[in-house]
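Can't paste images in this forum, so I'm doing it all in text. The chain is below; anyone willing to post the predicted structure tokens underneath?
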Amino acid sequence: QVQLVESGGGLVQAGRSLRLSCAASRSIFSFNAMAWYRRAPGKQRELVASITSNGWANYADSVKGRFTITRDNAKSTVFLQMDSLKAEDTAVYYCNRNPPINFWGQGTQVTVSS
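Text version of the structure:
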């Protein structure tokens, strides 16, 4: 069964933190690079952070130094720790492979108030 289930979003004030989680089916997760993407209102979906199967991470310049992506290979789960949140981080956040497959979960809404 193909599955991507994102959770952990919410409404927070600027400067605060959130931790997102994504439970993926093994068919999607195992031995594959995973990533977090986001889609802000009126904008296209963009890559936020990615992580290889052995833990090497890369970040978009806009989140570098504030966000941390990690993964738990035993649980097929990928996380995104988001610190020092800004209003411009407001978006729906999705996880997927990197590059993504043609299947998306429902996403999790992150709203940062300034």
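The chain has a mean pLDDT of 97. The beta strands are 4-7, 10-13, 18-24, 34-39, 46-51, 57-59, 67-72, 77-82, 91-97, 108-113.
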